[in-house]
Structure formats: C-alpha cells, structure tokens
C-alpha cells in the first residue's frame, strides 16, 4: 500500500493534486485507515499514471501561459476561447490545469494566418 505522499512523489505532483484526483473520482484509494489516511495500490497508481499521460507521440505539451504567448494573446483571452469552444486543450491535468500541444497551436496559427 502506498501513501498519498508517495503517490505524489511517484507522479511528480503535489499531494493536493492527488487529493483532487481522488475527489474527482479519477483515483480510488484501496484502503482508508481508521485515522482517515488514504492508501493506494501500486497497480491503481500505475493505471492512473498511464491514463493521465495521453499526449500523442512527439507532442510537446505547454501551459496556458505558454500557449497564450505562442498565439500572441493574453491568458484571459485564451481561457475565454476555450470556454467558448473555439480552442480545445489537448489534456487537462488532475489538478485542472489545461495543457496544449504546441505543434497543434502552431498549425492552427499557420492556417488562420494563411486564411487572412
């Protein structure tokens, strides 16, 4: 059995991110101790890690700040585009942070500039 702290270390995330993944039903503890501490099976942690890494082969995932800079817009403008469905993140981390494929954004930017 693995503690939430050890899960965080294995996945390279904070303990808060592990807690959010549990709260969202993305990761399930195998056991909850009488003191309320969560314990996870190694297999469940590995399966969660495999599901969380869904970046396509060769993709370079970037943050919303990096994506906004690449597109030449502010971060709030980028977030508005996502909410309105004009732009889709490649993935969302267990902590709720959007990640974008830099190659897809560059291609979309090229197509948009070519159309104008």
Describe the structure in your own words.
Helices cover 51% and strands 13% of the residues. It is of the alpha+beta class and 116 residues long. The strands form two sheets. Strands 1-3-2 form a three-stranded antiparallel beta sheet. The longest helix has 14 residues. The model has no long low-confidence stretch (mean pLDDT 83).
Rounded Rg:
18 Å
Report the sheet-strand fraction: 5-15%
Low-confidence stretches: none
Distance between the termini: 57 Å
The biggest sheet amounts to: 3 strands, antiparallel
List the helices and strands and how they pair.
Layout: E1 2-3, H1 4-11, H2 15-23, E2 31-32, E3 38-40, H3 42-52, E4 61-62, H4 64-71, H5 75-83, E5 91-92, E6 98-101, H6 102-115
Antiparallel strand pairs: 1-3, 2-3, 4-6, 5-6
Helix pairs in contact: 1-2, 4-5
Brief synopsis:
With 116 residues, this protein is α+β, with helices and mostly antiparallel strands.
Keywords:
116 residues; alpha+beta; three-stranded antiparallel sheet
